[in-house]
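Incident log, entry 3
Record: 3-hydroxybutyrate dehydrogenase (279 residues)
Problem: checksum mismatch between cached and fresh output.
Input:
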Amino acid sequence: MGKKYSFLNKVVLITGGGRGIGLATAVAFRKLGAKVAIGDIDLELAQQAATKVQGFGGYLDVRSQNSFHDLIVQIEKQLGPIDILINNAGIMPMGAMVEESQAISDAQIDINLRGVIHGMKAVLPKMQERQTGHIVNVASLAGKYPIPGASIYCATKFAVVGLTASMQQELRNTPIGISAVLPSKVLTELSSGTGDSLPIPTVEPQDVANAIIQAIEHNLAEIAVPNYLTHTSKAYGLVPHWLNTGFRKLIGDDRILKGLDQNDRKAYSQRLSQLAQTK
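Fresh output:
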């Protein structure tokens, strides 16, 4: 039996850690004795979250490599070198692709995909120097299953799943771990207004946090949340297109677009619009 992984005094950077999955993950790591650093584009939220976990909170715009660099310099001064990176920051606009503004489409690519790339490039060189470290990329089951009404989002998450798998091969002869975590519908602001229009299981942010920790403890390549969908998601691509389409019609996945409550998503959508204009 291998030695149990210890998070004691490990320095963990969580992007988008001010709320939702990021905050739940920060709390979970703190309970395990880790030193938690929270990066968020909302500095006030980052600092509030850091206070809750007795950690460090700083400004981070994952769209910017310079922003990552500046935050990491601060973290290293306050807590030490980064042992674990959780690439969690992400956005999920919903609606027909042709009705989505180019600014919102670009923001998804910049945050959900480029943000992950920037984070990995920011921490990997020093992890390689120290011959230790683990990166968790929070993707989505939407990176395995196409969702009508979230086409650009799906594209970014498919890309993150592929990026993670490729990097696992690049790093396979090193002690550095890299995992993809694929949550189902999470009860956060991102899924507001979807009601029961998403025909998939619903999970809590804490469930995702637990999966992130499990991925690191067992050096898992990939884990879905809920866990029982891990193998199902891998098998999806083996099923013929006509059968997939027939099944999706049967469960009524087209109601995702039809059932969206835009009033319920109004506050989130407005925040995304403001974010998309501030690059």
